[in-house]
Amino acid sequence: MFDKVLIANRGEIALRIQRACKELGISTVAVHSTADADAMHVRLADESVCIGPPSPTESYLNIPRLLAACEITGADAVHPGYGFLSENARFAEILEEHKITFIGPTSEHIRLMGDKITAKDTVKKLGIPVVPGSDGGVANEAEALACAKEMGFPVLVKAASGGGGRGMKLAETEADLAEAMANAKSEAMSSFGDDAIYIEKYLTKPRHIEFQVFGDGRGNAVHLGERDCSLQRRHQKILEEAPSPALNDEARNRVGEVVAKAMRDLNYRGAGTIEFLYEDGEFFFIEMNTRLQVEHPVTEAITGIDLVLEQIRVAAGAQLSFQQEDITFSGHAIECRINAENAKTFRPSPGLITYWHPPGGLSVRVDSGVYQGYRIPPYYDSLIGKLIVHGKTRNECMMRLRRSLSEFVIDGIDTTIPLFSELISQPDIVNGLYDIHWLEKYLAKSES
Ligand code: ADP
After folding, report:
1. Same domain assignment for residues 219 and 272
2. Is 202 in the pocket of ligand 1 (CB under 6 A)?
3. Is residue 34 part of a domain?
4. What is the pLDDT of residues 104-159, one digit of tens each?
5. Are residues 193 and 310 in the same domain?
6. pLDDT tens string 50-105
7. Which of 319, 332, 356, 391 is the most exposed place for a label (fewest CB within 10 A)?
8. Could you tell me if the CB of 200 is within 6 A of ligand 1?
9. Known catalytic membership, residue 16
């Protein structure tokens, strides 16, 4: 097992990883920018290193500075969390070259799934159904048009390197195609430095259902069920639940077995997520994330398995500590992403938290990196916490969530809590009847 793990991240996920390290008796190293000197993840770590100014490129994304922090502190492994360098194959490779373990998959697997065109092609060969679309990338408008006409409009133009909903543009008809391609390309170039694009059939009423997978790189791989992340704004998840209100045991086991087998065939190591769109009883792969997800706690709640602890164990060379038959699903869990944003305009709301009172009680979990008196810096993602609630049934979970949201008090800044309080009384949400477009339509209606 490792002696010391450096956590190359900030906020709630840095704390989440520290907790797992502490339980395993591993020392922790926090890194931080000058803007984060007072952050909770720095205060609670055994050691901390300032790695640069606020800009992520000069701190949390800066590989030479992170390497220097490893050398100074003698860390023998790095956990990247999510975002930042978590899916950067070169970072994983450089660490391995320096005999520092990257807590995650091999750099080959990160690279394979990091390019969405290669990823789709790879999983298709492994027997996973994919969204209908262009065979590989599209080089020009004529190629794109031919493909779009064959599938039928609307189509989605997507960036091969896309992420966070960027580099994705809708073409409702033939007349929109050229502009959608140009916009997707320029957004992809400026965000990812790669303007390769491909085309997919635009599904009009799918749910986003993703499977948590886990492998040990020693031939064992399992699935830990699904998460339904259909409640989205601008292709970004807002609320996640497990299990999905739309799936039955038969569908779960059938698709779960397909993805677990695919991971065994790849000899995948670590945690991963296979994302699908689900429409009319059919699954269509969209992408694989080769890292821990923001919404991993809902899976932890219904399986009782600590996914971060398992990531660390597997990275240290251990076999998976559970087999498929050991994994059982119990009850229902929902996660709300608490962002420092105005609940109506979604404008970021950094600043001083003057009062902080998180909810508590049975089966209520709050993962957060903030505290009363903390000033949220304006430089980073607006996620300041996650409220995860578990119940024996979906109904019990909703009751507990309603009660927890009413207890949660954060003063000094705007948060998305009022939005969740409103959403969970909507009949469609109460009954689990929503697709990926539901929230946008709801917000448009409440604006007018
Ligand atoms: P990113 O990596 O940028 O998050 P994804 O491919 O994971 O992109 O897609 C993010 C979200 O965009 C999905 O959850 C879904 O809401 C929407 N989306 C992606 N592909 C399609 C599609 N073919 N049809 C309809 N919506 C889609």
Report:
1. yes
2. yes
3. yes
4. 999 999 999 999 999 999 999 999 999 999 989 999 999 999 999 999 999 999 99
5. no
6. 999 999 999 999 999 999 999 999 999 999 999 999 999 999 999 999 999 999 99
7. 319
8. yes
9. no
Ligand 1 atom nearest to CA at 168: 3
8 Å CB contact between 75 and 56: no
C-alpha–C-alpha distance, residues 193 and 231, integer Å: 29
Tokens 């860390």 map to which residue? 75
- 261: tokens are 């087998």
Could you tell me if 196 and 212 lie in one domain? no
Which of 282, 289, 436 should be mutated for ligand 1, with most atoms under 8 A from CB? Answer: 436
DSSP classification of residue 56:
G
Per annotation, catalytic residue among 10, 16, 291, 337: 291
- Residue 233 domain flag: yes
Tell me the mean pLDDT in the region 367-395.
Answer: 98
Confidence of residue 164 (pLDDT cuts 50, 70, 90): confident
CA 66–ligand 1 middle distance (angstroms): 32
Give the domain CATH number at 359: 3.30.470.20
Are residues 95 and 136 located together in one domain of the fold? no
Number of domains into which the chain is organized: 3
Selection from 343, 133, 135 nearest residue 233 by Cα: 343
Q: Is 287 in the pocket of ligand 1 (CB under 6 A)?
A: yes
State yes or no: pLDDT of 165 exceeds 90. no
Cα separation, 407 vs 381, whole angstroms: 24
